[in-house]
Amino acid sequence: MIVDALTPRDLPRCAELEAELFAGDSPWPLSGFVNELAAAHNHYFALRQHEGGPVLGYAGLAVLGSPGGYECEVHTIAVDPEYRGQGSGRALLDALLRVADAVAAPVFLEVRTDNAVAVSLYERSGFAVAGVRRNYYQPSGADAFTMVRPAAAEVNQS
User: Fold this and answer.
1) Longest Cα pair distance anywhere in the chain, in angstroms?
2) Domain range holding 25?
3) How many domains does the chain have?
4) CDD domains from the entry (predicted)?
């Protein structure tokens, strides 16, 4: 498996996966992916079996703020169910965290409270629950944990 840059030609596959994986919670349409990829402050990655291969997973991160005060926000991480449990989510998360670490930024995300696999992955990567957002996911009404990982410089100092 490799992780590389998500490209415009990958976006229809992302929208297909999104519709499959998040059917009950307002999946992003193709236009949403187009807008996200076009935003200069966003960094999106694709998981593939080989260079140039089809997208098996994707992840995106926004870098917000200015030098010395950056914050990052994970927008999405998704993996085709056939490729889960093989380190795919970890590989995508690691790509996002490298971007955040390069600008010494803390990272925030939301994750369904009932997604124990994802919560565990985030905790193993240094994230901690900072709060709960009730009815965050719509239309299902599922709650989300807000999780935060301190900037890498802060982690290394403690």
Assistant:
1) 43
2) 2-157
3) 1
4) NAT_SF
Across the beta sheet with 128-133, the strand order is: 2-5, 42-48, 57-64, 71-79, 107-112, 144-149, 128-133
Instruction: Tell me the C-alpha distance between 152 and 78, whole Å.
Output: 24
Q: What does each C-alpha distance from 122 to 14, 64, 90, 106, 108 come to in angstroms?
A: 22, 20, 9, 13, 11
Name every residue whose Cβ is closer than 8 Å to that of residue 128 and which is 6 or more positions away in sequence: 147, 148, 149
In 3D space, the residue among 116, 100, 120, 117 whose CA is nearest the CA of residue 108 turns out to be 100
Q: What is the pTM (predicted TM-score) of this model? A: 0.90
